[in-house]
Amino acid sequence: MKGYKLCAAVCLLAMMNLVFAGCGSKEQEQERAPLVKTQQADSSSLADNSSYSGTVRGRYETNMSFQVGGQIISRNVQVGSSVRAGDVLMTIDSRDVVQKSNQGDAQVAQARAQLDLAQRNLSRYSQLYQENAVAAATLDQYQANYDAAFAAYQNALAQAAQGHNAMGYTNLTAGANGVVSSITAEEGQVVGAGQTVLTLVQTNELEIEIQVPENRVAGIAVGDRAVVKFWAIHDRAEGVVREIAPMADSASRTYRVRVSVPEPPAGMQLGMTANVALTPKSADDAGSAGTALLPLSAIYQDGDTPQVWVVGDDHTVSLKPVTVENFGDNQVLVQGLAPTDLVVTAGVHKLRAGQSVRTEAAD
């Protein structure tokens, strides 16, 4: 009887071990599903490859100066001051300008007197010539004197008008609404005509300025789309490449690229930091045709056909053939993928068709 009970107990224990062993093998099999690194095969991967930090700038930045020289007697703005078109920003001493205007008026009066005398002499000798009292050469001489006096009078009028205009140049006025970004002259300083005294940035049209290395500027063209993200306001906007500098900066050896923002987000201000992700037109066209930029490690070469591992909805992998368009720095441009395809980008040689995998998103 005891032997029978012992045998039954041994059998029951063996059956329990088999059950638990089966469950453990299933759990171990699930735990053995490898964790893979993936990337979605859409055109955003192309934009992420060309991201640059930039600064919000005004499209129109005017270095302002006086058209006449003199001593600055008042400065009405500070750095950062908002101004409107027509506001007086600085004023220089107008005394010298007024004296030059008065001098021009005096020269006009002198030239007018000379012209009147030449006209009377010409009229007198014209009458004498008609009476055959003087020779034709004498009349020609007085005609020439009159023509010279008339030209001198016209010249004096022009100089006087220039002096009158200069009287209006003693006030430096804003030509448009904007913000004063820098001031390089102070009250009491004597400045010359054309010397920059301040910089006015128009705020009605802001854009982003980035610096592109010389080995990447060839892949950018005017009209390329861009996605602009702002660090300060945590917002994003669509941009377009408006301008590419024709020459590299002599110090940094980078090319200045301006990206316009047709619909700027609320709170976008001068000097803010932004991140610009460029998307070339060729990338847009390619993206619609199933082109993606992948790491070189995503390619699984089987014979002469390049393939990639794609994770399905059931978390199993399968091979999908692709066409290699171009190679870059540890990256490859391929065609033949759908934008929703989830591509394995690392450890592709350790996978097999139908194998269950785990992704970062699932974990």
TrEMBL record:
Protein keywords: Coiled coil, Signal
Coiled coil regions, renumbered to chain: 108-159
PROSITE patterns: PROKAR_LIPOPROTEIN
Signal peptide bounds: 1-21
GO molecular function terms noted in the UniProt entry: efflux transmembrane transporter activity
Record-level GO cellular component terms: efflux pump complex
Protein name: Efflux RND transporter periplasmic adaptor subunit
A Pfam family matched in the record: Beta-barrel_RND_2
Family, per entry: Belongs to the membrane fusion protein (MFP) (TC 8.A.1) family.
All residue ranges annotated as the Multidrug resistance protein MdtA-like barrel-sandwich hybrid domain in the record: 66-201
Domain CusB-like beta-barrel positions: 208-281
Keyword Signal found: yes
Organism: Selenomonas caprae
